[in-house]
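Subject: for your reference before the review

Hello V.,

The reviewers asked for a structural picture of the protein, and I figured it would be easier to keep everything in one thread rather than splitting it across files. Below is the amino acid sequence we used in the manuscript, unchanged from the supplementary table.
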Amino acid sequence: MRIGLLTEGGYPYVSGDARLWCDRLVRGLGQHEFDIYALSRSERQEDEGWIQLPPQVSRVRTAPLWMAEDDGVVHGRRARRRFAECFGELAAAVCAAPAVLDGSEVSGGVTASETSRGAVADRFGSALYGLAELARDEGGLVGALRSEGAVRALERACRAPGALRAARTARVPDLLSVAAHVERALRPLSLDWYENDGLGSVDLCHAAAGGEAALPGLLALHFSGVPLLVTEYGVQLRAHYLASSAAEEPPAVRALLAAFHGALAAEVYRRATLITPGNTHARRWQERCGADRAKLRTVYPGMEAARFAEVGERVDGSGCADPDTLVWVGRIEPAKDLISLLHSFSEVRKEAPKTRLRIVGAPADGPEGTLYLAHCKALAAQLFPDEAEGVHAVGDNPVSFEEIGGPEVPSLAEAYASGAVVVLSSVVEGFPISLVEAMFCGRATVSTDVGAVVEVIGGTGLVVPPRNPRALAEACVALLRDPERRARLGAAARARALELFTVEQNITAFHGIYLEIVSRSPVRRLVVDDAGDPLPFGVPAEAHVPGRWTEARLMVTGRPRWAEGAPVRATAPLPAGEGA
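And here is what came back from the structure prediction:
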């Protein structure tokens, strides 16, 4: 089977999202052939290069989402008219405000809200594929999407009756910002990835995320009938909402971009053959964004259990851990709410004065992470000013900030092994990786009830409300005082992690899903002769056996004959006063 793996800002680059998961998947499915189609996010990411790829990767094609260079395409009169029609429809679908409905049924058990949502989705999808066909005919849309005509189309859609209330207030700077963002998101429309020797030749497209990563898969499905599988371990639409709220953009920009990304997510979910969320939390988001429940198949992320085996298999359930130490492991950033953890720890010290807290991790990239770490250190020094026994001695702070690789914490496994209880204090969390690592190590855990935490823990740890230092402290004290309970919970946690969250479980699940999709919706191709006519019996039976048995020229059924050649370049601009 030939898989087109679609990524955005991740694999095969050294740094990026879902890099480890994609690499484990590709290496674990050596019986299949993989073509990688990667969208990069920054020049720095491209300069860092790729990881070493396994032999089953036969091709890697990349394209930047960060470059601002024009593609040099100049559209003629007819192409400009087609673009104006398609982009105008796209803008109108994005700006269309949801009707105020009472939820009454229209017909056949379908509510009015569902009917309206379906109409907007049809309009958005039709416009999107119209733009894709125009890009395929003319060679690119980068210049058109940045043109004054695109901005004017957005403005007309914002001023139209029934448009989003926030969109009606959009000013010219807001419209320019939205147009630039939409152009960046739609750059995959202008790529040359969709020919017979590209994504049109694969048996299955597997998008490692939604949004821009899945857009090439939508086009491969539209042009060549290639089935699309979408995996989301973090829902892209949710990530956009969180980033937008933190960016402090004008209300009109936030509303328009949220509507655009919501429409794109709905189109991806609607056209995908199957969708594999990484947990129930992500699954609920997808359902609320329009995903059909029948298409959803939860597949937990696969993690390497072997690196934690030595710690997890120690007989006594606690190993050489300090029974008076709490451990927090992760990336230091505001979403992890270490402020509440430190206040909670001050309550723990009142009940168990010998307890220590080890915070293990590096700050998040950028100045925000560094500033937050400095704030946490200052708070720790303020809450625990001096632990000396005498007035003339210097005491140690019971809170330590460390990083993996130091003399005290040489490895990630040793970080979890250094304490009796592992704590997670986040206020925002998707799939809690550090929690699963602690479970592999056989550690009892105390966590806040956010994201997929309850689903991951499954009764093998204590869960408390977020932003509640007192509840967090009470749970920690309860486990610190009861070593037998800690051992029972740690053993149960390790057994659950080994059953659900290993690499082997993940690879097995996707292998079965690949076979299921291809068996249900295979890409049907015809062999054509030199004249372009179908050649009966041109695909021998051995062509279905893994290996390169034939060199027949293939044409995907349903693809227009005019699209077989290279894209037609645009015409030169008309002299002033001619055409419209």
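For the response letter, the relevant points are probably these. The CA atoms of residues 43 and 66 lie 7 Å apart. The chain has 20 helices and 16 strands.

Happy to draft the paragraph if you're swamped.

O.
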